[in-house]
Amino acid sequence: MQLIFLGPPGAGKGTQAKIFLERAGIVQISTGDILREAVGKGTDLGKQAKSFMDKGELVPDSVVIGIIEQRIQEPDCKKGFVLDGFPRTIEQAKALDGILAKLGIQMDHVVNFEVPDEELVKRLLGRAAQEGRSDDNPESIKNRLQVFKDKTQPLISYYEEKKILRHIVGTGSTTEIADKVKAVVGA
Ligand code: ADP
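YS: structure for the whole thing
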């Protein structure tokens, strides 16, 4: 099964992807995690990505598309995967369509997590206090929410037209949300 978890920063995509993959035996591919690891290791990719990430800007499409193209072809993705944090622009979504077509696979469901802005800000500030992620500061959070509205929100209609979009309200307990995910993807 191939899934995309779509939603604003703080919507709980990563948390739900982890829960889901344990149950379904598929892998989570998070561009945010891959980029953070590269920043941590100080690789060329990390050096390229860091300034964008700290400001809450998107890393250039060509960079993340290259990451995904490679990652999806690794053997552990054969059974399926959840994309978490990708695609984030129409350009990325179109590139993904091309990659999938070449591999002869398709996305089964795009799960759109809906969470009110006030709740997102509260969660992200809470995470900042706990995890100390360098982009969880008020300035960057504001920017990431705006970038989501400008660049990522258009993907909702993109996938609606393909008839694979499923909506869930991403509030409530982690278990409640996991049940909603399970219900819309039927797994
Ligand atoms: P959040 O959803 O809380 O913003 P992520 O871990 O998904 O957290 O992303 C953190 C940062 O990594 C983003 O603000 C952006 O700079 C970069 N990033 C992650 N995924 C992408 C992507 N698909 N395209 C461009 N930049 C990305």
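YS: worth flagging: Residues 9-10, 31-32, 35, 52-53, 56-59, 64, 85-86, 88, 92, 135, 144 surround adenosine-5'-diphosphate (CB under 6 Å).
IM: good catch. Also The first helix runs from residue 13 to 24.
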